[in-house]
Amino acid sequence: MVAASARGWAWPRPACAGLGLAVLLPLAGCPAPDTESGCVESTALFGAPTEATGLDAEACAPTCASCGEAPWVQPTYTAEDLAAWRAWSLQDPPAVLASDPYAEAAPAPPGPAAVCAMLPAGAEYRLVNQPSSAEALAAGAAVTHFGTCGLCSSLADLAVYAEHPDLTEPVRACGMANLDGDIAALTACIAAIGFTEPCASIWAWNTTHTRDACMGVCLEYYDAPYNEPDGSLNPCLQCDEDESGAIFQAVAGRTRRNTGLASSMCRPCSEVRPLVHAYGAPGGG
């Protein structure tokens, strides 16, 4: 459990495989195995499986192991934690998307150590891009996810990701209820899940783009488990990843994988960035 402390900040800290690292790892996921010693990294997947996943807790769990080290386990975030995150007020929030981001080329990916950090000021905070966690911490900011800041980088959106391990079903339901292409109505439906409107807008454009690019395969696999028996995504979700993933990640900023949060869609540990969120109550001394 990570409790929100009224005494002030308990900074989110990068962590991987119990190594106690104080700075970000230069690459995604947990450390690579020591191939010279014959040590093999665990093949288990990172996630929080449900009935929709298609995998059990032996194949997928919210933990990543590394050779010779204790595994890193995602903390359980309480309702008090989520309420504390939502109590913060974001200065200069991003605007709702005014046009289709999929009509433009994906921006270049950020550097491997880049982070999005939140800089507190009383009961408010700003989101700032930093080239590394060390520089973020030196500036008095807390790392909130890996990569650059985007439309879903707020603490309010972090709370939604942590509260809903399965967002596939509610977002898909919004897509099915708004097949007429009304992006404003689709955005409003997704915002009703709890997302901020800017974050909901990139989810809406992603949903529309995936529907256009993957309609056939997604109709075929509409009721299929999220993961295949070998751990791979089902063909519909893989199509979404291939056709819509790069733009979504660049515009949204925050994803579960770069935030250290497990979802009902299981992923290889090599794609996960372990991070602990332990924000204090706003205005703490």
What keyword list fits this structure?
disordered N terminus, 11 strands, four-stranded mixed beta sheet, three-stranded mixed beta sheet, alpha+beta, 285 residues, 30% helix, 7 helices
The sequence of SSEs as H and E is EEEEEHEEEHEHHHHHEE
- How far apart, in Å, are the first and last alpha carbons? 22 Å
What is the topology, as strand order, of the major beta sheet? Answer: 6-8-7-9
Beta content = 5-15%
List the helices and strands and how they pair.
Elements: E1 13-14, E2 45-46, E3 60-61, E4 63-66, E5 69-73, H1 79-87, E6 89-90, E7 115-121, E8 124-130, H2 133-138, E9 142-146, H3 155-163, H4 168-177, H5 183-191, H6 197-220, H7 235-252, E10 267-268, E11 275-276
Parallel strand pairs: 2-3, 6-8
Antiparallel strand pairs: 1-11, 2-10, 4-5, 7-8, 7-9
Helix pairs in contact: 1-3, 5-6, 6-7
